[in-house]
Structure to design on (122 residues):
């Protein structure tokens, strides 16, 4: 009978995470008034609808009242497009949010805040 050497993998190496490390968990305080803290999520890959062929939706959730606002948009909208949509449909009626929590990348969120502030104070 022939001896076959089977390599043994160290358990630490086998269970090691190879992906990106997660960020720190930050506690988000409960808001004290409506639209103080909102969650924003972009839902993409929807079938085109409307005369402008909207194919995405922007969902805004108010953490205080647990209410939702749904806005039609396009998948390739920029931060400037999103800012104009937010201004015309939400902020002009309710006021500016204190915090926006989003799953978009930091560059998009930063550009959104910059555009909003530039629009309001310039």
């Amino acid at each position: 009978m022939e001896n076959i050497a089977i390599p043994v993998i160290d358990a630490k190496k086998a269970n090691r995470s190879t992906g990106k490390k997660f960020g720190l968990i930050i506690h988000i305080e409960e808001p004290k008034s409506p639209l103080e803290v909102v969650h924003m999520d972009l839902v993409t890959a929807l079938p085109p609808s409307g005369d402008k062929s909207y194919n995405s939706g922007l969902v805004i959730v108010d953490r205080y009242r647990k209410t939702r606002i749904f806005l039609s948009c396009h998948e390739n909208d920029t931060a400037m497009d999103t800012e104009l949509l937010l201004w015309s449909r939400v902020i002009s009626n309710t006021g500016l949010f204190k915090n926006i929590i989003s799953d978009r990348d930091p560059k998009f969120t930063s550009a959104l805040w910059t555009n909003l502030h530039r629009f309001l104070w310039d």
